[in-house]
Design a protein that fits this description.
Length: 387
């Protein structure tokens, strides 16, 4: 039996996929083989030697200590694209909110409560203060063309916007899904300089932290409307506030409220609603559970943030799965004890991702004792035998 610990409520449509004859799961499970998590903070957690995988039911993994997991041979999964449609819809809503002053108008009309028959006349008299432009025909810059960015770009183009996209790491899968109406540029400065609206869809990394600062804002139109439904750390809040106050920006819409932003004029703060739909939660749960099952049962990796994707069928007697540091000579040091144990390697695959790699050997023969031998190999951090 494998033990799966849930740190947050995981939708039943996901956990129902776990075979009860092979898996036990719940928030009280001790010494887990895998953990399913949404937003729970894990940086101060101690991980047992049995822990094989952590699956985040969502895209962001800031709540998980990735480096610590890699060092212990723990695969960390996320669920890219599972909440993409939910976020896309909210971004489109944000575009309209930023243009038409809808939120401010709703607050204002509440002040007319109790005016009786005067409400109609007061509305007609006061509505001019909430005039705003249509989005059709305006330029939208989409920074980051991953699962969410592509959906946003395509939807905005379908609404008649002139869309420009930027992503230095655009992969083939997402490029193929991108509408032919979307212009792709190789320099983000083109978006800053040309666009009426800019929406951010990049991960939080040391390279993207504070990417929207006073220097970036200085390149933008003074009428620009900026949307951030990605991560709060992408934006230097003080610089955005200063731009709003001195006329260097028209509006800032964010899904990440802060004390400094709340109540500021021309700032629309939402309480992190991006993935807050039942459909999104279901999609994330299903994807996370499937990732864990495929890794535990078959040794396959898909959508890991710290190890490469790899899928290899078992044609021999067993599949030896080795997580190791991405340094020279390790593969020779792995295959040597396997051959010395009398095992015949039928097939082998090895892939790397930054500092770590994953090597799988499809073997014939008796694998008894091979795990301990491989765990003793320098730079190997995790070994499993799957049959």
């Amino acid at each position: 039996m494998y033990n799966i610990q849930t740190l947050n409520k995981i939708a039943a449509c996901g956990t129902d996929l776990l075979d009860k004859s092979k898996y036990t799961f719940g928030d009280e499970v001790a010494n887990p083989d895998a953990i399913l998590v949404r937003s729970a903070a894990m940086h101060d957690m101690e991980f047992g030697d049995k822990l094989l995988a952590i699956a985040r039911a969502g895209a962001g993994v800031n709540n998980i200590p990735i480096d610590k997991c890699s060092e212990k041979g723990i695969v960390v999964f996320n669920t890219p694209g599972a909440n993409a449609n939910a976020v896309k819809e909210l971004v489109i809503c944000g575009l309209l909110l930023s243009s038409r002053k809808i939120a401010a108008s709703m607050d204002w009309i509440k002040t007319l409560k109790g005016k009786g028959d005067e409400v109609g006349k007061l509305v007609e008299k006061g509505k001019s203060q909430f005039v705003g432009p249509e989005i059709m025909g305006k330029k939208l810059g989409v920074v980051g063309l991953g699962a969410i960015g592509v959906l946003v770009a395509n939807a905005a183009a379908a609404l008649g916007m002139d869309v420009i996209g930027y992503d230095p790491f655009l992969n083939v899968e997402h490029a193929l899904k991108l509408s032919g109406k979307v212009e792709y540029v190789k320099d983000v400065k083109e978006i800053y300089e040309k666009c009426d609206y800019i929406t951010l869809h990049v991960p939080a990394t040391p390279d993207t932290k504070g990417m929207i600062d006073k220097d970036a804002i200085a390149l933008m139109k003074k009428s620009v409307r900026l949307l951030n439904f990605s991560r709060d750390s992408l934006v230097v809040e003080a610089d955005v506030i200063a731009a709003l106050e001195n006329g260097g920006m028209a509006c800032y819409v964010t899904d990440f409220g802060s004390d400094d932003l709340i109540g500021k004029e021309n700032v629309i703060c939402l309480p992190h609603l991006g993935a807050s739909t039942p459909e999104s939660e279901d999609n994330c749960a299903v994807m996370a559970v499937k990732e864990v099952i495929d890794y535990i049962d078959n040794g396959n990796i898909k959508n890991s943030v710290n190890l490469p994707n790899m899928s290899m069928a078992i044609t021999g007697d067993a599949k030896i799965c080795v997580i190791h540091k991405n340094v020279e000579g390790v593969i020779n040091n792995i295959t040597a004890p396997v051959s010395a144990a009398g095992l015949n390697i039928e097939n082998m695959e090895s892939k790397s991702k930054k500092d770590y790699a994953y090597t799988c050997l499809d073997v014939k023969g008796n694998t008894a004792g091979i795990e301990d031998k491989l765990k003793a190999v320098e730079n190997v951090v995790g070994v499993r035998v799957v049959k």
